[in-house]
């Protein structure tokens, strides 16, 4: 697919992913509201939501969820935003994803498996209490 995109379009897409990584919630939200696909993925299958969760930006996670981001999408390695938030020990992002309906057992490894592997009992309790 990237072979079909011109350099300017690719640069714009990379910038959007960078906004998610950096937690630039307001700017990224503005682009989504203007028509940027909220479930846009990069060449590894990472969505804006997965990147925001992995880089521990709960406000960006919440904003993307509020704009329709699919919390169940997994990247090419089977990782979900919820598992990424658990890996980063970000309870606020975990709560936002759970509140949106994210399944703690979905993905490979799942959020529950991630919490068990990294011995995160507080997050494991959060994941299994819902």
TrEMBL record:
ANK repeats: 44-76, 77-109
Annotated keywords: ANK repeat, Repeat
InterPro entries tied to this protein: Ankyrin_rpt, Ankyrin_rpt-contain_sf
SMART domains: ANK (SM00248)
Keyword Zinc: no
Keyword Kinase attached: no
Source organism, top-level taxon: Bacteria
PANTHER family linked to this entry: ANKYRIN REPEAT DOMAIN-CONTAINING PROTEIN 39-RELATED, BRCA1-ASSOCIATED RING DOMAIN PROTEIN 1
UniProt protein name: Ankyrin repeat-containing protein
Organism: Micromonospora purpureochromogenes
């Amino acid at each position: 697919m990237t072979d079909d995109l011109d350099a300017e379009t690719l640069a714009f897409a990379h910038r959007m992913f960078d906004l998610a990584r950096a937690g630039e919630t307001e700017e990224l939200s503005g682009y989504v509201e203007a028509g940027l696909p909220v479930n846009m993925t990069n060449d590894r299958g990472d969505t804006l939501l997965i990147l925001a969760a992995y880089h521990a930006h709960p406000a960006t996670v919440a904003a993307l969820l509020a704009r329709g981001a699919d919390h169940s999408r997994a990247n090419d390695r089977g990782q979900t935003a919820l598992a990424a938030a658990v890996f980063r020990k970000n309870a606020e992002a975990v709560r936002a994803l759970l509140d949106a309906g994210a399944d703690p057992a979905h993905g490979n490894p799942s959020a529950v498996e991630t919490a068990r592997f990294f011995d995160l009992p507080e997050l494991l309790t959060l994941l299994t209490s819902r």
